């Protein structure tokens, strides 16, 4: 670890800071968020301007509230279902309200805190490792090859830039990579004739989902999302916060409450359901962010795009080269996977890490299945060890 990283990790006194490193870090999660948001807007028939404005506001509020680079992200399981099944916007909003109520109940009753204590750390590390594998796979299979030969060349240049400037606090790699992507988009992929400023500011309006939409959203979208949210958005995020910012005491109860409150507002104002996530935290941190300033900057970008571009925002954003996003996503994945190093010296724990990670990566609903199997194996091993110790003590007593 270099001196700059050591100082920022262990003596981070600033709550909000705005500098080139916070600016660079603010792009650390864009590779995860942007493609999902752009794909969800037409699939669910959403207002692109409203989605961007609400998403940006939630980022800004989160950055101010937490003071660490912990952004909001689209709910991934919901996003995939909406994109693949073309689920209507009112059902999506109903699902956001449903999952907000569930998470608020778990948080206020203490059930969320109990779950966080009951699930072994090695299992959480496995969840983080599995998410890292998923992100890396997405980057290499879906993003980098998306533009053919030119995309591979662009991704290689971006990769080299990040490797050469990794950890450089004076010339943040993410800024150069993002600027390179903007240059490529302006020359090759943006249809400038379809891009124009909004004629008027389109502010979000209150929209209360019907009971039918809430019930359908609960069954179709919220229930499949809950396992991933519990494992990655809350428990793994709390562990990642402890890893990267040990001086900040942020528990799962607070994370669960802000998760719930954010989804109440998002659903009522026409935004997409959101969550915290260890991947987003790792992404911002990997590219230099150390305070909530990066999240405020990130949110301001979405807010301004929504306010200024209106209905054309999704056209402009969709033109950004996916290979660049893939490189950012890949390094976000690397930071997550490297967190398992503290388990490498303990064979049993590391075995569970690898097992849970493999299940989370390779099986449908793998985050939930991996969490349950890993936790069961851990407690079985603990029980067997106690039983063996008791037998040895009894044998010695008989002698």
From TrEMBL:
<feature type="transmembrane region" description="Helical">
    <location>
        <begin position="91"/>
        <end position="116"/>
    </location>
</feature>
<feature type="transmembrane region" description="Helical">
    <location>
        <begin position="143"/>
        <end position="166"/>
    </location>
</feature>
<keyword id="KW-1133">Transmembrane helix</keyword>
<keyword id="KW-0812">Transmembrane</keyword>
<feature type="transmembrane region" description="Helical">
    <location>
        <begin position="257"/>
        <end position="283"/>
    </location>
</feature>
<feature type="transmembrane region" description="Helical">
    <location>
        <begin position="50"/>
        <end position="70"/>
    </location>
</feature>
<feature type="transmembrane region" description="Helical">
    <location>
        <begin position="173"/>
        <end position="193"/>
    </location>
</feature>
<feature type="transmembrane region" description="Helical">
    <location>
        <begin position="352"/>
        <end position="381"/>
    </location>
</feature>
<dbReference type="Pfam" id="PF16983">
    <property type="entry name" value="MFS_MOT1"/>
</dbReference>
<feature type="transmembrane region" description="Helical">
    <location>
        <begin position="213"/>
        <end position="236"/>
    </location>
</feature>
<keyword id="KW-0472">Membrane</keyword>
<protein>
    <recommendedName>
        <fullName>Sulfate transporter family protein</fullName>
    </recommendedName>
</protein>
<dbReference type="InterPro" id="IPR031563">
    <property type="entry name" value="MOT1/MOT2"/>
</dbReference>
<dbReference type="GO" id="GO:0015098">
    <property type="term" value="F:molybdate ion transmembrane transporter activity"/>
</dbReference>
<feature type="transmembrane region" description="Helical">
    <location>
        <begin position="324"/>
        <end position="340"/>
    </location>
</feature>
<feature type="transmembrane region" description="Helical">
    <location>
        <begin position="295"/>
        <end position="317"/>
    </location>
</feature>
